[in-house]
């Protein structure tokens, strides 16, 4: 494949050349073995087609400023431009060393006047994507439907009050699942960008959720019919663009899965979406891990001073360490999951080189988080904190309570005449500042040695 970006393959240099060496990895060493697996197998990085190759870095107050090597080329029509962009995308991913990618159907190919025409446009681009996948060995982590951008989805997609829109979504979804099967997608993501309400006064919430659950069932039935075995994933987000989305956070999505008997789903968790729900990324990952439902991760972060979805590249080592600690506790990012960079550079970082630098920063940050998390696991640091904090529950009484052999009456008898002072004395300090100082030391010491 030609060098379309004018940039060589990104090397691993460690820290030998100093911290200012930008177009190189300092911590991400794909074949390095960490806790029994190669780094690339723990992390499974994916590039998001929509942000990396389609986003123009515009915002509510300014036009797009992105400079990409395919800009200014003279193509006969939008379809030819879409086909040409595929080669640029795979050249970028090859230079970066990312082994996976993700895409929405509507950001890889232009729409036609009808669904039939749109499907034909999509087929031509998918032919090209399949060709480049075979040539490079890059795989599809997941694909999905864009059922939120077009004006037809102004009142929702599977939850639309218009049955005509539900029909359209069914047709679009059938084609998207067929593509997932054809390209060997390891997962399939459902993000309900407009599956929610703006005003509860005019919304029959239960009926809309019933419709969404039925749509999910039809999708799963069709996947089985065509032999698609990829993992189905729900991606939670609390709001924006709607006032309230039905998949508010991980706990809400888990409740929806249980309520409608949709156990074939796992969860795809995004860092910035967790922040919008007023959770930490690590908290959301732990909720999924504890439920046995971690599926995959969208790697980004948000500016905590801004109340909307910023999709920043992840560089916070506390976040990446906490997330990777949870991943190591689970053994992997789900059965087939990875870290998809659902992120875009800041508007002031508009050059082609900036796009590489942003991905390098994100990949290095997660590699560093993995190294720190592995050291914590090796030392049983967090496990020992838990063991010390809950040691009273490891007593015979604790085991008896947890196995449902006690009652309110039996416990009351034990404590009825206990002096209040002794109850307070049974508490221990959690010394949280000391815990955080130790985590600081883990980050500093581990990275110094690597």
Element string (H = helix, E = strand): EEHEHHEHHEHEEHEEHEHHEHEHHHHHH
Uncertain regions: pLDDT < 50 for 5+ in a row?
Answer: none
Structural class given helices, strands, pairing?
Answer: alpha/beta
* Strand arrangement, major sheet: 3-4-5-6-8-10-11-12
Proportion in helices: 40-55%
- Strand coverage percent: 5-15%
Reported for the largest beta sheet, the result is: 8 strands, parallel, barrel
Instruction: Give the strand tally.
Output: 12
Q: What is the residue-averaged pLDDT?
A: 96
C-alpha end-to-end distance: 33 Å
Number of helices: 17
What would you note in describing this structure?
The protein is of the alpha/beta class. Helices cover 48% and strands 10% of the residues. It is built from 17 helices and 12 strands. The protein has helices spanning 39-43, 49-54, 78-96, 105-108, 115-136, 163-183, 205-226, 250-259, 271-276, 281-290, 317-330, 352-379, 381-389, 396-402, 408-415, 420-425, 432-448; strands at 33-34, 37-38, 45-48, 100-104, 139-144, 187-190, 196-197, 231-234, 244-245, 265-270, 294-298, 339-341. It has an 8-stranded parallel beta barrel with strand order 3-4-5-6-8-10-11-12, surrounded by 4 helices. α6 runs parallel beside α7 (205-226), α11 packs across α12 and α12 crosses α17. The longest helix is centred in the last third of the chain and has 28 residues, at 352-379. The chain is globular.
């Amino acid at each position: 494949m030609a060098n379309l970006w004018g940039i060589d393959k990104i090397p691993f240099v460690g820290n030998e050349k100093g911290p200012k060496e930008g177009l190189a990895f300092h911590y991400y060493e794909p074949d390095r073995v960490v806790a029994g697996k190669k780094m690339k197998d723990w992390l499974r990085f994916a590039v998001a087609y929509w942000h990396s190759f389609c986003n123009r870095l515009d915002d509510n107050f300014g036009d797009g400023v992105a400079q990409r090597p395919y800009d200014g080329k003279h193509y006969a029509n939008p379809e030819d431009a879409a086909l040409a962009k595929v080669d640029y995308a795979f050249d970028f991913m090859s230079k970066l060393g990312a082994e996976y990618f993700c895409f929405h159907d509507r950001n890889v190919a232009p729409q036609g006047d009808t669904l039939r025409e749109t499907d034909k446009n999509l087929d031509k681009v998918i032919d090209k994507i399949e060709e480049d996948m075979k040539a490079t060995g890059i795989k599809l982590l997941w694909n999905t439907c864009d059922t939120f951008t077009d004006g037809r989805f102004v009142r929702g997609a599977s939850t639309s009050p218009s049955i005509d829109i539900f029909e359209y979504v069914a047709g679009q979804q059938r084609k998207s699942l067929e593509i997932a099967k054809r390209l060997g997608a390891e997962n399939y993501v459902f993000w309900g960008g407009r599956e929610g309400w703006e005003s509860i006064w005019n919304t029959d919430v239960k009926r809309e959720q019933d419709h969404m659950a039925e749509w999910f069932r039809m999708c799963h039935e069709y996947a089985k019919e065509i032999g698609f075995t990829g993992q189905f994933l729900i991606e939670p987000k609390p709001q924006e663009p709607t006032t309230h989305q039905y998949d508010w956070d991980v706990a809400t999505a888990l409740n929806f899965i249980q309520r409608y008997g949709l156990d074939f789903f796992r969860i795809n968790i995004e860092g910035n979406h967790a922040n919008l729900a007023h959770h930490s990324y690590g908290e959301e990952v732990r909720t999924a891990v504890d439920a046995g439902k971690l599926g995959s991760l969208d790697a980004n972060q948000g500016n905590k001073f801004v109340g909307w979805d910023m999709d920043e590249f992840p560089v916070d080592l506390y976040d990446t360490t906490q997330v990777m600690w949870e991943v190591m506790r689970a053994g992997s990012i789900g059965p087939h999951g990875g870290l998809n960079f659902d992120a875009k550079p800041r508007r002031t970082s508009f050059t082609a080189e900036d796009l590489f630098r942003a991905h390098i920063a994100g990949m290095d940050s997660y590699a560093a988080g993995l190294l720190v998390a592995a050291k914590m696991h090796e030392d049983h640091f967090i496990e020992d904190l838990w063991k010390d904090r809950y040691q009273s529950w490891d007593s015979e009484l604790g085991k008896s309570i947890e196995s449902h052999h006690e009652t309110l009456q039996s416990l009351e008898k034990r404590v009825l005449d206990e002096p209040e002072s002794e109850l307070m004395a049974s508490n221990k300090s959690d010394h949280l500042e000391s815990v955080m100082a130790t985590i600081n030391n883990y980050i500093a010491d581990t990275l110094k040695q690597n």
